[in-house]
Amino acid sequence: MKNWQIKASLFLNYFVFAILLNSVGTVILQVQNNYGVTEGAASVLEAFKDLSIAVVSFLVSSYITRIGYKRAMLIALGFVTLVCFMMPVSPGFWAAKLLFAAVGSGFALIKMSVYSTIGLVTSDKKEHISLMSFIESFFMVGILTGYFVFSYFVDDNNPQSTEWLKVYYLLGTISLAAFVLLLSAKLDESSVRNQANDSMVQDFGKMFQLMVTPLVLVFVLCAFFYVLIEQSIMSWLPTFNSKVLQLPTALSIEMASILAGATALGRFLAGIVMKKLNWHVVLTGCLLLAAVLVVIAIPLAKGAEGRVVTGWGDAPLGAFVFPLIGLFLAPVYPAINSLILSALPVQKHGLMSGLIIIFSALGGTTGSIITGNIFGKFGGQTAFYFSLVPIGILLTGLYFFKKLQAKA
Prior knowledge:
Elements: H1 4-21, H2 24-35, H3 39-42, H4 44-60, H5 64-67, H6 69-86, H7 93-121, H8 125-153, H9 167-184, H10 190-193, H11 200-211, H12 214-243, H13 249-255, H14 257-273, H15 279-297, H16 317-321, H17 325-329, H18 332-342, H19 349-378, H20 380-385, H21 388-407
């Protein structure tokens, strides 16, 4: 297969960062157990992750072609490998903040490079959207794996134990393996490096000019609200399982994996379905089904109150049903990202990838902080009902995106 080694590297890079980035929900739960912080205080971990992504993306997106996509990914992997090996010897809430700031910064480089590299190793729009969906589905496989990996290191009999931090030795080793694979892969970046002749001021000007075009403006609105929905659910699902459904800590983390598994399946299927069906029909149908699932699933949590749960076999129905929302939300993000990138020349993919990452990060931070504060004041059921509002906004945004994308 053409470009197989660099494609395999893209998958593994995304896999590593999927585990690290989306462990924020697990770590939010653990810092409440270990360090006694409140829900509102714990929610800032999402901000350390996402704001570092946004800042680095803003500063580097116009310069990424000069650094080189492969070199940027190597820098990110090397940096994160070091931070992972440092984490177990530096326990504390401050260390968790530092970890997510470092991981967020590295992911900004990885995501810009991966998104831009897809345009270099695919030959047409259909291949582009298919590879994008498969890579994003593998990202969810990484998240799914992460839940089980972290739960293995959690001690339910001693919630205050920091032995779970040893998981970062394993994650550092995987990151190091990804570094070695990428180092040996070949990537021809000449078609974009030849265009990197403008000054940084000119590059920033081009990014802002790109952002204010109607198509891109509506797109970033859609990306913002999609990630707001996804992260508000993903980051707080372990806490919802623990505090609302009364599951043991390790089981709360494990059962959150249903969301990741459903999302991975949804994106894998989207990689097949999007080749045959109209993207707007598929995404609209998926969002409507997601809204219906919220209305059906959240009330099931009320029936779980007071139950003693020891394992998957006696877990309440709500713990299985609500995470299936990932199946319906899954196709949205890779599809709209692929559509906007496919509408632009490859020379602009670096700038556009930067905008995608910036507004995705801002959406993730906003969603997690809002959900965390609603969770603390009004309870987990109200917090998850909140997702119906951005789902409605996203449906409206996709309608206008379709109109503008057809014209473009």
